[in-house]
Every structure is written in C-alpha cells, then in structure tokens.
C-alpha cells in the first residue's frame, strides 16, 4: 500500500534550514571583495559593498566606498540585518524544538524587520552608486544577487512563520497524518 501525505514533525526543520541558507547568502554578500557591480566588459571597473576599483589588467586603483555616507548606511543596514537574521535563526530553532507559538510569531516579526532593513539597503546601493558613476553600462552581479536571495528567503520564512501557529497540533505530532493519496 502506498500513502502520500505531509509528515509535519519531519518537515518542521526545513524553515530553520532555509534561514541558515539566508545567513550564508548574507555573509557572502557582505564579505565579497567584488561582485556587487561590474562594468559591461568586467575589465575596467568593479565594486563591492566596501570599495570600488578601476584599472586595466594588473594595474588597479581601489578607493573605499566607506568615505560616502550612503555606503556606510548600506553596510550598517546589511550588518544589522545579518545580526537580526542570526537571532531569528536561533529563535526559529528553539520554536521548532519546543513548538512554541509565541516564538514563531516573534521569529516572523524579526524576519519582517530583516526584510525591510535589507530591502532598503539593497535599493540605496544601486541608486547612489549610479549617481556616483556616470559612464558606461554596469551590471549588478553575483554578490548583490546573494543579498537579494537572503532577503527573499527571509520574506518567505516570515510568511511561513505567520502561518505555522495554525498547525501547532500537527507540528507536535498530536494529530494523525492526513493522507493526500492512498492506494488500497
């Protein structure tokens, strides 16, 4: 006999795992030395959250972006978002161990704050960077994409944590699984 259903007690660890991926994505975006912005050919200009470099071949001149207040704001917002995301991960893990509805709602609130903070940072960066640079076409590349990836995962997990209190009994394992399909 074959049965297909959702086993909530086994699936409840997926959300903290997603938050762990969001933390890793944020770390990649914050720590990347290049990969936020590149010029069209990726040969004469690139930038990270921290600095921008211009040059040709092996002759590069780098300038810190931390001289600009907008870059300091972006760095601060991304780091604050990462710290709150780590706190949300710890809360999520504890909430799933104990199936605590209050912690689930608290985790959702933290994740909404993370999403708002990081969206603001990820919008400020291209707007102000484009004001700083006037020539040519530029592409926002892999590290900037990791920042957006972490933000999107945070939004998704916040929505899931808002919905989870409805399934408290299923998460505890107090309810029999409801099978979607059964072949008898």
Automatic annotation (TrEMBL):
Presence of keyword Transmembrane: yes
Localization terms from the record: Cell junction; Membrane
GO cellular component: cell-cell junction; membrane
TM segment ranges: 12-36, 73-94, 101-125, 145-164
Signal sequence, start to end: none
Family membership: Belongs to the TMEM47 family.
Protein name (Swiss-Prot/TrEMBL): P53 apoptosis effector related to PMP-22
Lineage: Eukaryota, Metazoa, Chordata, Craniata, Vertebrata
Gene that encodes it: PERP
């Amino acid at each position: 006999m074959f049965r297909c259903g959702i086993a909530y007690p086994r699936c409840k660890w997926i959300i903290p795992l997603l938050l762990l991926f969001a933390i890793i994505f944020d770390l990649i975006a914050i720590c990347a030395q290049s990969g936020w912005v590149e010029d069209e050919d990726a040969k004469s200009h690139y930038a990270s959250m921290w600095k921008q470099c211009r040059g040709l071949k092996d002759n590069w001149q780098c300038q810190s972006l931390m001289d600009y207040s907008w870059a300091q704001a972006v760095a601060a917002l991304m780091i604050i978002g990462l710290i709150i995301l780590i706190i949300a991960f710890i809360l999520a893990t504890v909430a799933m161990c104990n199936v605590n509805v209050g912690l689930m709602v608290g985790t959702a609130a933290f994740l909404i704050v993370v999403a708002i903070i990081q969206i603001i940072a990820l919008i400020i960066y291209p707007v102000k960077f484009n004001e700083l640079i006037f020539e040519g076409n530029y592409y926002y590349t892999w590290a900037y994409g990791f920042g957006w990836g972490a933000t999107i995962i945070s939004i998704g997990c916040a929505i899931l944590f808002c919905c989870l209190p409805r399934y408290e009994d299923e998460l505890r394992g107090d309810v029999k699984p409801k099978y979607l399909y059964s072949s008898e």
